[in-house]
Amino acid sequence: MATGRLISSGSEPILDIAPGRAVKASDLTGIWNESTLDFDPAPVKRMVTKLEFMERFTDTELEAITSMSKKDTGVGNKVSVFMKKLDLADQIDLDDARLQAGVNGMESLGLIGAGRAAVILNG
């Protein structure tokens, strides 16, 4: 029974794979699904530049975030650390769980308006 696992990587033909199932390694794209014995499409990363990400916030929101990040409190320190990590990033991955938690946290703190986290994260 075919499992989709590699049977041979040599130059000899593989005779026990169903027609149409063998492909060159260079043609493989996506993620192997052992249930369907086929490749699922690879997830598309939603990446933006730092500037593109920051432009998703209003100036008022950025002022509130910056002000909170300067406060020497537990919450202020957390916001400061989040902003420092953003500053050090080369690009912003909108699907990163840490980024999503940070933006949602800003919404729960009232630094950005209700419903704004979803708008910021989804464009």
Provide structural commentary.
This protein starts with about 30 loop residues before the first strand and ends with a helix. The model has no long low-confidence stretch (mean pLDDT about 85). The protein is elongated, with a radius of gyration of 23 Å. Helix content is about 40%, strand content about 10%. With about 120 residues, the protein is mainly alpha-helical. The protein folds into two domains: about 45 residues, no CATH class; about 80 residues, no CATH class. It is built from five helices and four strands. Helix 2 crosses helix 3 and helix 4 packs antiparallel against helix 5. The strands form two sheets. Strands 1-2 form a two-stranded antiparallel ribbon. It has a two-stranded antiparallel sheet with strand order 3-4. A hairpin with a 4-residue loop joins strand 1 and strand 2. About 5% of the residues are buried.
Q: Encode the helix/strand succession as letters.
A: EEEHHHEHH
Distance between the termini: 46 Å
Rg over CA atoms, rounded to whole Å, is: 23 Å
Give me the secondary-structure category: mainly alpha
Strand fraction equals 5-15%
Biggest β-sheet: count, sense, barrel? 2 strands, antiparallel
Compute the number of structural domains.
Answer: 2
What would you call the shape? elongated
**Low-pLDDT segments:** none
Strand order, sheet with most strands: 1-2
Number of helices: 5
What portion of residues is helical?
40-55%
Could you list some keywords that capture this structure?
123 residues, mainly alpha, 2 domains, two-stranded antiparallel ribbon, elongated
